[in-house]
From TrEMBL:
Source organism (scientific name): Pseudonocardia charpentierae
GO molecular function: DNA binding
PANTHER family linked to this entry: HTH-TYPE TRANSCRIPTIONAL REPRESSOR PURR-RELATED, LACI-RELATED TRANSCRIPTIONAL REPRESSOR
Keywords for the protein's UniProt record, in alphabetical order: DNA-binding, Repressor, Transcription, Transcription regulation
Occurrences of domain HTH lacI-type (ranges): 1-55
Protein name (Swiss-Prot/TrEMBL): LacI family DNA-binding transcriptional regulator
Length: 327
């Protein structure tokens, strides 16, 4: 059935039928009801592409992540996709490869093609984010900017718990492998340094490193050269790289060195030994940020503009007490 069939059945013009589906508020209630009844009788459904163009809507949402291959990004994308699908939106996904220029370029390219844009842990300038927010509704994760709605995963306290856990096991020489500069790394660094200050420890900070498996492989020798008995990594990917390189060098975990990651991705359960890590609620962050974005796309900005999601330490087999061999 076509729009002309509906118009004939309802006794109106095709233009009136079009307005009923694109701008219903411009059509008299009685006429609108006749058109909807005729459409239902004829089982007519408007073309979704044409309907979106008429409403100046695309039916699409966009998300920019630092690295699609990163386990944490994958969890965010999956959660965002589920929420988008539930709300009948398609999701466009792109990655910046942790390059600021690429992130800004990708975001600007997506903005005109989507109804809303989600940026995860963005490193773009404040000016760029505000410029994007003037073009399309924008929500960010793990970034503080007064004018932009945000979902934050607060890890400082849980990172402090990781340091306390290591201290209780007898560790006094601890290294931290920093990740890319931004809210997440700042939160983890502040939690680690505050805990170390309370416990009288002097942490060795190495990096920053890209949040990738290869960074852990590269950093492992630096960690061993530093002579520490425990290492806290920015994320599970880096921690898994550490475990691999330590195994290659015959360094036993946790007998000779303990390892803690961040994120609690599926990777933490796959490596040997299973990884002690700080659980960061990635799926909840992705779902909450997408729900917030959809709310803004639909014109509802009356609710909460910033959410903080808590983290917690998960203890597994990669941490253990200091032994004579590890000292």
């Amino acid at each position: 059935m076509t729009i002309r069939d509906v118009a004939t059945r309802a006794g109106v013009s095709p233009a009136t039928v079009s307005r009923v589906f694109s701008q219903p508020e411009t059509v008299a209630p009685g006429t609108r009801q006749r058109v909807l009844t005729a459409a239902e009788e004829l089982r007519y459904a408007p073309n979704p592409v044409a309907r979106s163009l008429a409403r100046r809507r695309t039916g699409n949402l966009g998300i920019v992540v630092p690295d699609i291959a990163n386990s944490f990004s994958a969890m965010i994308i999956k959660a965002a996709q589920q929420e988008a699908r539930h709300a009948e939106y398609a999701l466009f996904v792109t990655a910046s490869e942790e390059l600021v220029d690429d992130e800004e370029r990708q975001a600007r390219a997506l903005a005109p093609q989507v109804d809303g844009l989600l940026l995860t842990s963005p490193q773009a300038s404040d000016a760029c984010l505000r410029e994007l927010a003037d073009i399309v509704p924008v929500v960010v994760t793990n970034r503080l900017l007064d004018s932009v709605p945000a979902v934050l995963t607060e890890s400082a306290q849980a990172t402090g718990h990781a340091v306390e856990h290591l201290h209780a096991l007898g560790h006094r020489e601890v290294a931290y492998l920093a990740g890319p500069d931004g809210y997440s790394n700042q939160s983890r660094t502040s939690g680690l340094q505050a805990a170390c200050a309370r416990l009288g420890l002097e942490p060795v900070v190495l990096g920053p490193f890209p949040a990738r498996f290869s960074s852990g492989v590269r950093a492992a020798d630096l960690v061993l050269a530093a002579g520490v008995t425990a290492v806290v990594a920015f994320n599970d990917d880096i921690a898994a790289g550490l475990l691999t390189r330590f195994a290659d060098r015959g360094v036993r975990v946790p007998e000779q060195i303990s390892v803690v990651g961040h994120d609690d991705t599926a990777l933490a359960e796959m490596v040997t030994p299973r990884l002690t890590t700080v659980h960061i609620p990635a799926a909840a962050a992705g779902a909450t940020a997408t729900q917030l974005l959809i709310r803004y796309v639909r014109g509802d900005d009356s609710g909460v503009r910033r959410y903080e999601l808590p983290s917690e330490l998960i203890v597994r087999g990669s941490t253990g007490p200091v032994t004579a061999r590890s000292t």
